[in-house]
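Title: [Solved] PPR repeat 3D structure

Original question kept below for reference.
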Amino acid sequence: MLRSRKAESLLKRPALRSVKILTRLSNCGSLPLATSFSSADALSEDMRCVVEPKTRPVPHLLSQSSCGSASRVARKLRCLRGKPEVALAFFKDSVALGFRHDHSTYSAIVRILAESHCHKQLVTFFCDLISSGREHGFEVRGLFVALAHQLNDSSLLTCAVDAMIKACTFCLTPEKAVYMFLQLNSSGFIPSAWSCVVLLKFIAKDGDLEIVLAVYDQMKKLGISIAANLSSVVIKALFQAGKLDDALQILEEVKESGLEPSPIIYSVVIEGFCACGRYEAGHAILEETVRNGIDVNVFTYNKVIDGLSEDRKLQEAEKLLKEMIKRGVRPDTFSYGILIRGYCDTGNLIRALDMYEEMVTHSIKPDATIVSFLLHRFCKLGMDFEAIEFFQKFKDSGLHVDEVLYDIIIIAHCKLGRMRDAAELLKEMKSKGLNPDKIHYTNLINGYCRKGEMYNAQKVFADMVKKDIEPDLYTYNVLASGFCRNGFVKEAFDLLDYMLDRGLEPNALTYSVAIDGLCRGGKLKEAEILFKILEERKIAQCAVLFSSMVCGYLESGCTKEAYILFVKFSKQGTLVDEIARCRLINELCRDGDIERASAVFRLIQEMQITPDEPCYYNLIAAYSQVGDMHNAQILFDDFVHQGLSPDVILYTTLIRGYCKANCLQEARELFFQMIQRGTKPDVVAYTVMLDGYLKETLQKRRSDYDEERWKTEVREKYSKLLNSMRDMEVKLDSVCYTALIDWHCKMDDLQDAHKLFDEMIGKGLTPDAYTYTALISGYCNKGNIEKAEGLVEEMLNKGIQPSSLTFSILDRGSLCSKSLQIQ
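Solution (posted by the thread starter after getting help):
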């Protein structure tokens, strides 16, 4: 028989096994043991070690004077056979009058209830008996011995035993229930398979696998039919303990016993694998089960669909749903809900909506939970209008709308600034008998704060308190933050005082809101004083407060002070949050202080934290801007080494830096490396490369370079780059067209330049001042001042203001033209 190694060892050594289990089960002094065991006892030698205590309590006997009375009561009860209600009332009345029943009277009433098939009353009776037995030391074995003498029908005796086992699961601990089971077994009273299932389920809930397996073994030794339900309980317990192979071995044992495993067992096995995260295995067993012609219910299908969905294998999950329908198993709300949730979680709203429509088409009513998945996804995608429309459609269908859905849509209205609609929804909730909680009120307050309607925010807060809905720290923080953002700093601090009066201590986030509010309100000195006080009280060591003060300095334009504070606390082991450190590096780079920005970056690394992607981006951009491509490349290589994937923006930043530093070879290599690594260049990247090629072209033209060879090389590079754009399906924008037009003008190819200009307009793109200036420059260089002046007039007619560079080029062109005419 399969067991855990520990249980196997115990079962091989009965003495050791009895010590362990007896220690746990012998605390059942309130349930006295049988006084003797006969050779005919059904209990095996091994299990006898489990139930035999070191000392045997003597069962309490009724006084001799009561024997005559007990006989008369027993006879009276026998006269009431067939009248269980009357008999039970008589039995209880006699107890109320002070009569103490013995085995004969107990067995008589049990017989009446069993013969009348009053199972529930019998279970209740045994529950009372177990409780009274704790006080009077009543011996259960004696009762069943007496009952056996009265009953000729073994099925009625089994019914009584089953009721006793059921009562034990209601009134006793698992250990004591097992003890009672073993006590009955020792006297030859064997429960039915159904009762054994009830007992095993009760023990399994306690999570003691050893006892489950030991009792299961004993049931088999007693000849109890190991039905599907019984084996399924053990299999489930093994799966819950993570013993998958052992669970499968039980399944094999059931097959070897000649019993064909029922759908119940297969369902338990499939669900067990899914519960352990082995979704593929669960799916495989499900398919094998179906091939063998065994029916699988929708609940089991849902377990596998849910597992595949959790594993992000949504196509497989959807395929299984379709197979389930083909096999005649009707899906339920949960079947579709799993897939809708999965598609929403992965951002595929369109497919989620398709599943919703399919669900409705199959006349399966969606519930509020499913709709909440869709509404959350709408809102995360910024589709708040669509979320509101979908909510209204669902509400109009007459289906139940719960508090969660109302909360989602209240937030959606708040984000859109539709505060009147949000407030109306709160009233609607109340009219429908739904009680808004502090979450609903807090979200409405947040909406008013974001819109700057602080009077209404305060009004909602007051209404909340009036209705005995206690605001939590989050509510206070939202309102305090709103006051600060909108310049009501005094009101924010009044609110904090009010919070303290109500016995709620501000947390670090509350203080950070106060600091942020003071800084936004232009009261940096007050923020510094508050931070200093918190620092003295050791509260400012918290990263939240530290971050708020750094951001406060940055908000006030005090980048140097923010840097000094960052360095101070970083050396003490406290690091600001991601937003604050990215902001600090960004502001330092914007101020051109790359040295300090790099110092911040190094401090982050020294604390064994990988800098955030924006930190890398900002610093690489700063180095590229000043032409320090050595350090820019080092940072880029470190970025890749950290396992991060550079996107087209980062590649383009570095390529632009190389082009600006006249390192065209490095720029080209990086550009093609980007393509090789699977990052598709966008129109900006191509424009940067075109601009780089133009720079290189002009440099070579000014040098002593063969004109024909120069033109051939230029055309090759130009064609190669344009072909690459077509292959990548990158469409030209107005900036790219401008670069190409400028290229052709500088190549003295005005015909192609103007052709591109017309093509650009034909595609609906509007030339800007730079585009016109490039073309005007080309015509001026060719001496065609009339055409250039015509383009300037066209610019003015279109409302495009020529720049000073445009007029400068035109003036210079005119002077050159006049000079040539004079010559």
